[in-house]
Amino acid sequence: KLFFTDYGNAAKVERCDMDGMNRTWIVDSKIEQPTALALDLINKYVYWLDIYLESVEVVDYQGRRRQTITKGRQIRHLCGLAVFENYLYTINSDNLSILRINRYNGTDVQALARLDNAKEIRVYQKRTQAAVRSHACEADPYGMPGGCSHICLLSSSYKARTCRCRTGFILGSDGRSCK
């Protein structure tokens, strides 16, 4: 799945399949300007920060069990969001510090370090990487991902895929080659 925020005409948090199909709103009320999003892949939670409502909130992948982690004026200066173990990590754009926030109760906020011009944060650690099973976009014997000549996107499950073409090309009638 692909998760993303939108604060155009109607602010929301959404999810869809990697090929863009099955687009679903998972948060569409009491939300104004969601600017960062982080996933807990193990427990299947979506965290986001809303700089207009000055809050960090969480829901499960279906948009249920919504909770506010923390609220306050300091939220409007946050950008980027990552989750690892018991904490959320974010950047305070006001003083360029990396913050660590307890994700269960919003307390235990600590400034960890300062960085110049940071706007995004990611945690790279082996435990944050989900185990990969074989999937429909694996390279075929000719080295083509999922048998697609350009781009292979996972669809509704790891067993299904959709082929797409780079800009300037169109998908052939075989559904795999680009012309």
UniProtKB/TrEMBL annotation:
<dbReference type="GO" id="GO:0060070">
    <property type="term" value="P:canonical Wnt signaling pathway"/>
</dbReference>
<protein>
    <submittedName>
        <fullName>LRP1B protein</fullName>
    </submittedName>
</protein>
<dbReference type="InterPro" id="IPR000033">
    <property type="entry name" value="LDLR_classB_rpt"/>
</dbReference>
<feature type="repeat" description="LDL-receptor class B">
    <location>
        <begin position="1"/>
        <end position="43"/>
    </location>
</feature>
<dbReference type="Pfam" id="PF14670">
    <property type="entry name" value="FXa_inhibition"/>
</dbReference>
<dbReference type="InterPro" id="IPR011042">
    <property type="entry name" value="6-blade_b-propeller_TolB-like"/>
</dbReference>
<dbReference type="InterPro" id="IPR050778">
    <property type="entry name" value="Cueball_EGF_LRP_Nidogen"/>
</dbReference>
<dbReference type="GO" id="GO:0017147">
    <property type="term" value="F:Wnt-protein binding"/>
</dbReference>
<dbReference type="Pfam" id="PF00058">
    <property type="entry name" value="Ldl_recept_b"/>
</dbReference>
<dbReference type="GO" id="GO:0042813">
    <property type="term" value="F:Wnt receptor activity"/>
</dbReference>
<dbReference type="GO" id="GO:0005886">
    <property type="term" value="C:plasma membrane"/>
</dbReference>
